[in-house]
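Quick entry, no commentary yet.
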Amino acid sequence: MTEERMRLDVFLWRARFFKARTSATEAIEARGARIERDGQVRRIDKPATPVEAGDILAFHAPSGAKLVRILSLPARRGPPAEAALCYEALVAR
């Protein structure tokens, strides 16, 4: 059975944007993120905010600013090739 929602920090860690979940948590608390769902954009500063497939995320990763669409929620922190199937990188609008 797959999850319909997942904590933002867990998604960012499992999708391999951060090496540690605590790093994802600290980045969200310090710099925030934006989630676009159903045409509504929300600014987020809580790592426990749930995300779901179809959401568009804007956040700061160690490698720079990212804008991604969630395609599926990863069941585990797998290899990079597996993690890359969970999101689609978007061009900044």
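second:
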Amino acid sequence: MQFQGAYTALVTPFRNGAVDEEAYRALIEWQIEQGIHGVVPCGTTGESATLSHEEHMRVISICVEQVKGRVPVIAGAGSNNTREAIELTRFAKEAKADAALHITPYYNKPTPAGLVAHFKAIAAEVSMPFVVYNVPGRTASNVLPSTLAAIRKAVPEVIGVKEATANLTQISDVRECCGDDFMILSGDDFTVLPTLAIGGCGVISVTSNIVPSLMAQLCDAFFKGDIAKAQELHFRLSPLNRAMFIETNPIPVKTALAMMGRIGPELRLPLVPLTPEHEKSLRDTLTTAGLL
């Protein structure tokens, strides 16, 4: 299965300490109405680190139920504990997600051989498409192109990578090492257009939580060959991209969605609200963009 275009790394709305199912369903519905190409529940932006297993599974179930097959669902299922990753992947498949997104193990920092063994172990228990999530800023470990190629060779279920290195040389090397049928999804909103230009097929986006239509239009324009429009949208999105990362993700994007009336502002500790200075800056950016 080929995944192409703009995929939103969905936030998980909370209300009084619990998952706000009503707000979550409404957000997903709005995303689809706005033309998003796919959605990703239970990733970093979805605060997966502070969801219980029961909540994690429920969030994926709600997402798949609400989508109703209209767009692909890539469900977050990664862990630095291989057994836990197997369990989460098994549930993602049972819930009928189209693929599983696997952050590479963090903190324990496996060797390249350990990464290959990790994905082989998951695939031995659950066969479904996997997307590797390479985000050295959070894992303290960069999956090099040669390692990705080794994983791909050993584990056919691994069909692509979400590259959040913002390193275009590395992304180009991934394409060279893994072939042009290996999906490369940008994991940085700042590098969507450059990634597409060197062979990427789309983005898993934070910013598209608030502007799904614009991010989808950028990808559509590129694939239609309208590079001028894609460039225009790239620069139109740039202030919003910067605003989404003025503090740790997903603090700004959840705050923005709350300002827009889409969800409540609730976060889970250890994440805390934006500073007043950053809140004002974010509000100003959203106002300038016509979102408030």
